[in-house]
Amino acid sequence: MNSRALIRFSKPTSCLVIIFCFFSLLHHCASGEQELGLCDDLYQCGDIIAGFPFWGGDRPEHCGLPLLELHCHKNTSTSLIISDKEYSVLHVDQTSYTLTLARADLLGPFCSAKFNTTTLPPDIFDVLPTYKNLTCPKDLRINIPVNVPMSFNPEEKEFDLNQLESVLRKGFEVKVMIDEITCQECLASGGICSFNGTTQVCCKTTSSSSRVTCLPKPQPSATELHNLCSKRFRCGDQYHLLYPFWIPGREECGHPDFKLECNTSFAELNIASVKFRILEANYTTRIVRLARSDYLGDLCPQDPSNEPFDKNVLLFTPNTELLTLFYDCRDFSFSTVVYDPTYFSELGCDGVVGRSYYVTRNLSSSLLDGARDLLNILSVLCLRNVSIPASGLALETLQKYPTPYNLKKALEQGFELGVTRDCFLCTDSGGACGYNHKSSGFVCYCNNGPYDRICGPGKWSHGSSLLAAVLGLLIISTLFLRKRKVSHDRRKQNLKALIPLNYYSYAQVKLITKSFAEVVGEGGFGTVYRGTLSDGRMVAVKVLKDSKGNEDDFINEVASMSKTSHVNIVSLLGFCFEGSKRAIIYEFLENGSLDQLISSNTSMNMDWLALYGIALGVARGLEYLHYGCKTRIVHFDIKPSNVLLDKNLCPKLSDFGLAKLCEKKESIMSLLDTRGTIGYIAPEMISRVYGTVSHKSDVYSYGMLVLEMIGARNNTSTGNST
After folding, report:
1. Per the annotation, does 542 bind a ligand?
2. Does residue 57 carry a pLDDT above 80?
3. Binding residues for ATP, per the UniProt record (predicted)?
4. Among 324, 333, 423, 632, which residue carries the largest CB count within 10 Å?
5. pLDDT greater than 80 at residue 158
6. 3-state secondary structure of 261
């Protein structure tokens, strides 16, 4: 074949090759777009219409979340397998990403059900707050909880099995937990929302290669997170909101339980299936005020739920009390209970069964001790009780003027919460409060990265000479303070680890004592203040004086009291150990100390039986310290001011600042200092000439205390410990 013929043959061959490549490229481009197109539109599965994030049937797996595979049963029904349990899908709302589910085994008669316990994965499904868990009566032998509407309350009448079956067939609504904002941004950019395993991605066709690439949402930088969470946002009538609240697009800036629902009038959130409305959020005073939405303007809402408020994120301020409402109470006029009507009144919501009442104090408050019989009757004869946080000042007004108007006003004023210490430490250091979804905990977003609580040092923008001077000063300070700081931090860490008690920050101590408003006693080691915990319990808070030498005394007291549990030993409830700020929180005893009692009554006028009971109680407390504890505790400061009395004059030993722990087999103790109070201190404590120091030194002090009680001698006590 000559060259001319070869050329004539090559021309059409080249054209065929070019045409083949063109169509191959066109097919590849079309296949990429077609692959994306499969995930774009809604599709029919069984008797429902669905789309992202679901897949199954004719829809490929990459179009949805792997766990959300729909099983299409021709045109009759649709099902979903969740935790190895089949659920019937009754409806899908693609706008709000909610679906209505019903357990397949509960669609028929109860007799044919298997009643296997199953749970919905909380990271994928969130049951809407209009539904609740219901456990069936024990006589039905059904020990699994089922999801029913909040309005379904079979306990108000005889349990109707047919009614329950009807409710379960209608199913319950859940929301699929996806990143809606990211998906909307993906759709707006021409992409398709999809999943790569459990990671949500945005799939697009690249213009250069016509290939489909799926990428997750890019992680924001530290500066972007700091800027986002520092910026206040609006929700309803609230214009300056920050942590712990959040709205879609600000997931990293708020606690998961504090997602807001915004409309034109107000901002609301659901906490433990109860809806609250934000009345005020003041980040200058660090006070947030909320109110229960269902009680705004209505004292008798339908089916109110009683759920405890989660105080882990926002803390009750000392001014917050609990108002308890009792509904549908049967007649208890047969009872002859005598009680103080100050804290009780009728609510005015007459139900099917009977009347309703309210109590204006925490049910655990000591102010209600005289009405325990009445409270027990209400708990038995009333079908429902609801505890609602409210302002203590508003409740005091309600006690003076118990009218429906004042009750409604107390509920409408809401209750106050304080921002946690972690958050205001973060903001004070220049950071922004947020939430780390990987560690499921608080995080402080700073310009140079995330921190646990306080922003660390960033980059310096000053001159090199100033930088050198500052660094030099820091080095000198670090070398000087390092040993003391390490020792203090280690001791603090060991103290918190070894003592099984509640730890309170100094800011929390200030809230409990209302900024140290009421002094109830003073001693050589510090001042005692009256306080109130968030649950309404009255407590005594002993704040130690700021000094370098009393750290061991503080640790002694906390360690000693934490090892005790006796009716004649004061109960320790918590402690604070924050630098030089140290405080001990223990039960509040109404009758003060023994020295106050015997100083206001002469021994001739006091009841001898009461004196005997006090002396016997102190002796039993000492016996417990010396022989009842695993490790013997020697008090070393037994005196009337360290014996506290409750409302029944039951004595309790307190103030363990000078106490010393020792093994029971040790009969002789070695002390380098003199401990005790003049007038009660044992002679061997002053000079070893009189004998060796042991637990019997407490017995001598006890003898001095008894002598003073019966008026046989007057001590020369100055009230100071040495």
Report:
1. yes
2. yes
3. 542
4. 423
5. no
6. strand
What does the alpha-carbon distance between residue 392 and residue 657 come to, in Å, rounded to a whole number?
Answer: 35
Say if residues 421 and 427 touch (Cβ distance below 8 Å).
no
Q: Is the pLDDT of residue 216 over 50?
A: yes
Mean pLDDT of 219-230: 88
pLDDT reading at 242 higher than 90? yes
- Domain boundaries, given as residue ranges, for the chain: 43-176, 273-307+314-419, 497-587, 594-709
Q: What is the pTM of this model?
A: 0.49
Which of 328, 595, 637, 698 is flagged as catalytic? Answer: 637
| Spatial distance between the Cα atoms of 305 and 336, rounded to a whole number of angstroms | 31
Helices (H) and strands (E) counted in the chain, each on its own, are 15, 38
Q: Please check the confidence at residue 493 and state whether its pLDDT lies above 70.
A: no
Amino acid at 512: I
The per-residue b/e assignment along 48-77, b for 16 or more CB within 10 angstroms, e otherwise, is bebbbbbbbbebeebbbbebbbbebeeeeb
* pLDDT tens per residue across span 372-391: 777 777 777 788 888 899 98
| Four-residue CA torsion sign, 369, 374, 375, 376 | positive
- pLDDT at 680 exceeding the cut of 80: yes
CA 519 to the chain's CA centroid: 30
Residue 98: how many CA atoms within 13 Å on its side-chain side? Answer: 12
User: Is 2's pLDDT higher than 90?
Assistant: no
CA quadruple 382, 386, 387, 389: dihedral, nearest 10: -150
**Averaged pLDDT for residues 98-127:** 75
Contact assessment for residue 99 and residue 70, using Cβ atoms and an 8 Å cutoff: no
Contact 274, 307 (CB under 8 A): yes
**pLDDT reading at 291 higher than 50:** yes
Place of tokens 């001739």: 604
What residues pair up with 421 in beta bridges, in sequence order? none
Residues 598, 659 contacting (CB under 8 angstroms): no
* 347 close to 384: Cβ distance less than 8 angstroms: no
In percent, how much of the chain has pLDDT > 90?
A: 11
What are the tokens at 471?
Answer: 């660094």
Q: 594-709 adopts what CATH topology?
A: Transferase(Phosphotransferase); domain 1 (1.10.510)
Q: Which residue has the tokens 């992409």?
A: 191
Contact 391, 414 (CB under 8 A): yes
Q: 168-186 b/e with 16+ CB inside 10 Å = b? A: beebbbbebebbeebbeeb
- Residue 485 pLDDT greater than 80, yes or no: no
Write the CB contacts of 443 (distance below 8 Å, at least 6 apart in sequence): 434, 435, 436, 450, 451, 452
Angle between helices 392-400 and 404-413 (to 10 degrees): 180
What is the Rg, in whole angstroms, of the alpha carbon atoms belonging to the chain? 35
Give every CB contact of residue 269 below 8 A, 6+ residues apart in sequence: 245, 258, 259, 260, 261, 275, 276, 278
Q: Whole-angstrom Cα distance, residue 699 to residue 689?
A: 18
Query: Which residues lie closer than 8 Å to 689 by C-beta, 6 or more apart?
Result: none
**DSSP state for residue 628 in the 8-state scheme:** I
* First-to-last C-alpha distance (Å) of the chain: 123
Q: Write down the CATH number for the domain with range 497-587.
A: 3.30.200.20
Asked if 257 is an active-site residue, the reply is: no
pLDDT at site 690: 66
Sheet holding 441-446, edge to edge: 432-436, 441-446, 449-451
Residue with tokens 């659901």: 270
For residue 152, give the 3-state DSSP assignment. Answer: coil
Tokens matching residue 354? 């009977």
In the numeric block, which tokens belong to residue 69?
């595979």
Contacts of 327 (CB under 8 A, 6+ apart): 304, 347, 349, 351, 356, 382, 383, 384, 385, 386
